[in-house]
Specification:
The protein has 127 residues and is mostly beta strands. It has a single domain, classed as UDP N-Acetylglucosamine Acyltransferase, domain 1 (3 Solenoid). The chain is built from no helices and 15 strands. A hairpin with a 2-residue loop joins strand 7 and strand 8. The termini are far apart.
Length: 127
């Protein structure tokens, strides 16, 4: 293990992780409660390359997927956080974090953006 790296993987309660996903635990990845990684071939990356003293160095990053998030098949998450109750469309490439705004966010595209928001009450939650 590299000096200064503290790799970890935390999976919350009632999560559904389907087959053939890749979780790079160079840094840390945490999946909240009731997260679904649907389909197959989703990748979550928790390290990046940065310049330090004129040299390229690998740096660990913490990645968090919020409670009740649904991540479709073949999504790529690069060193970014996903909010609670989000729906990430199949094939999305997530290269920035999305703040939790208290609503259901539909995130899709390359690069991924918020396409639509809904109140949580429509999704069946009063939280």
């Amino acid at each position: 293990m590299r000096a200064g790296w503290n790799p970890s993987l935390t999976i919350g309660q009632r999560c559904n992780v389907m087959s053939h996903h890749f979780l790079d635990v160079g840094g840390s990845i945490s999946l909240g409660d009731s997260v679904t990684l649907a389909g197959r071939d989703t990748q979550i990356w928790s390290h990046t390359m940065k310049m330090q003293d004129g040299k390229q160095v690998l740096v660990p990053v913490a990645v968090h997927v919020g409670n009740m998030a649904y991540v479709g098949a073949k999504v790529i998450v690069v060193c970014s956080d996903l909010p609670a109750w989000c729906l990430v469309g199949a094939g999305a490439v997530v290269v920035k974090s999305f703040p939790d705004n208290g609503e259901v966010q539909v995130i899709a595209g390359n690069p991924a953006t918020v396409k639509r928001t809904y109140p949580k009450t429509i999704a069946g939650s009063d939280e």
